[in-house]
Amino acid sequence: MNPDPGAPRLDSAALVTDATGGVLLARSPDGDLRLPTSRTSAESGPRAAAVRAVRASTGLIPRLGGLLVCDWGGQGPGGAVRCVFDGGGISPAAARRRTGDTLFLAPDALARALAPVEARTVLDALRARREGRTVYTEHGRPPPVLAAMDRFGIVPAVQSGGVWEWREEPVPASLPVRQSWVWLFVPDGRVVVYVDVAGLLGLPGGTLEPQDGADAAAAAVREIREETNIAVTPPLYIGHVVDRGVGGPVVARVRMAALATAIGPATVDPATGTVHRRLLVPPGLVPELCGWGPAAGAQARAAVGAVARYGVRSEGVCEEVEDIPAEGLLPSRAGP
Question: Does the domain at residues 9-142 carry the CATH identifier 2.40.160.20?
């Protein structure tokens, strides 16, 4: 059977280090240094291909460990999925017996000697080995959502928000409003989200309580204060999602947008008795971090458009995900 010409090839490599921590590198056919790498054949799997790669490069047969890195490099010609396995350490005697055009290079020299994607892959493999886990990357970099999850302790989860239906018109009178959540911006165009002690992330906001008088904006302001201790401009309605539930009533969950005017110290949320971690996130990343999927992009755009009246930038937004300090932020960073 002929392979699909549009499918990426599958390559396998091995990370082998010497007693000083140097990384075993081999010359590719085009002369570049890289980890020993071989294409996976139809007769054997990726791990066997990594064994072949080391043997072809050194004349030696490794005892491979687990997968360290899986990198997706795109579709079509030139695209590849690359698996990097842990080849462990090489003994001094084995190192002296190796054949072929190989060398050991210290980790701090990789960036100067290797192509950028290859250098990042090798460093990712070294980090994965140290931490006892597998790293997933695309074109040599972790997707932004995975980088943020890893850095800020956000756990994987499957939640209901991805199937809610976005509507930008007013909530019909026949549809009860259950919650009010807020796209809360700071002047540099990023959005405030919080991470609870279980590692789950969301926009500030919550359920309408009796003291809110059925006022979604009042509920939003109260919930923002309780969850994040942030003062805001009057929230602007941007739409709602329809939650059809399972075995329960159909409800609306309102979405609003506002601008932070003061960010105080992190405080205990009276509803949970815990202190939430507060992050600044570029708006385009919020739907994926919240588990709402690409369809929520329209919601993000509506929120960005709503706060344009406050001079919040819509282009050139900082792409970094950043902690809000526990002590809060200066007014110049928190509001207009």
Answer: no
